[in-house]
Amino acid sequence: MSALQIMQEVPPGQAAPFVHASEEDHRDRVIISAAIGVSFVLLALVSRVIVRKSIVLRWGLEDSAIVLSSVLHLIQSSLVMIASANGLGASVTSYAPEQTKFLQKTYYASNILYVLALDMSKIASALLIHRLTTRDSHVRRYSSLVVIILPVLTIAFTLSTSLQCNLARPWLFVGQTCPHWFLRWKFHAAIACIAEFAIFIGPLWIVWHLQVPMPVKTDIVTPFALRLLIIVLTGLRMQSFDQQGFATKPTLAEAEYVAWTQWELTFSVLATIFPSTRKSFLNLVTYYNSGHYAQKTASTMPYGPADESIPMKTFTDRGASSGRILQQIGEDEEDDHGSETLIIQRRRSFAVTIDDPGESDLAVLGPRVDP
């Protein structure tokens, strides 16, 4: 129960409200943003499990990163709500010193988990793009570089967040002089925005030379493009920081800043799951060289099954009196269940029948690979 005194009279048989919004108590913003974030992430995790079961692909590093970022988000949001129950978002003058000390430790831990969860969601998106690229391609080398750089930045920013103000007791910020505290967060926000652009270059690069209709390219790029909205949320978070209020009443003045922090982190985790929808995967993955599963799921392709006949140009053999239409037939010739490489290409074969006087029709099969 909060130490703040609630002035309104509580009717008999009812409990007092958890938060009473006033000029000295803005905890409602913090709690609402954190609670909604937890609900959305839990719902997204359930959706992720359903989608993952419908796509028979081996468990990848991006799956582990998504789970880890979601778990870190849930723990971080829980710590924020615990800190709010002890005064985060309100004036600490109404709280006991023990509560204020516990509040600072909890908020300090939530900031570290915020950095880890936010950057882990970026790493998950980069790993997903890396998995969807072909081997020995320039876009794979680029995505590999992004995957390597992001963890290094995560470690650096985690250490920067951990060592602040009083190095002997870095969790203290009430009544402390922290001249470079907000400068560190500004630098972290700038690098985070650059990282979002770097991640978005990956899917753009993938579809640039992909020979598919423009609506398909749009379906592939759009889920990744949603991550760019994080840049807007980051700007709103930084704009809401009250430097003057942080020096006098940090727990009260930064309620809006903490709320925007929760919205930013929640959307970042959710944006990591957006590209995992079934339609996006089917647009990217042709199930080439995947054997029985390719035949099983061919009918679920958004643009028709693989064995659907597509008329092509008419060719006439030079030694024949007449020619017939060259007709494409889709066929998965190899049955290699061990191959799990995601290759953005379609394997086709075609049949040619030639009319030769005095001989029966001859069927010639030949492979063709379209990049």
From TrEMBL:
Domain of life: Eukaryota
Entry keyword set: Membrane, Transmembrane, Transmembrane helix
Membrane-traversing stretches: 30-51, 71-92, 112-130, 142-163, 187-208
Domain Rhodopsin, chain residue ranges per copy: 48-280
Keyword set includes rRNA-binding: no
Alphabetized Pfam families for the sequence: Fung_rhodopsin
Name under which the protein is recorded: Rhodopsin domain-containing protein
Organism: Cladosporium halotolerans
Classification of source organism: Eukaryota, Fungi, Dikarya, Ascomycota, Pezizomycotina
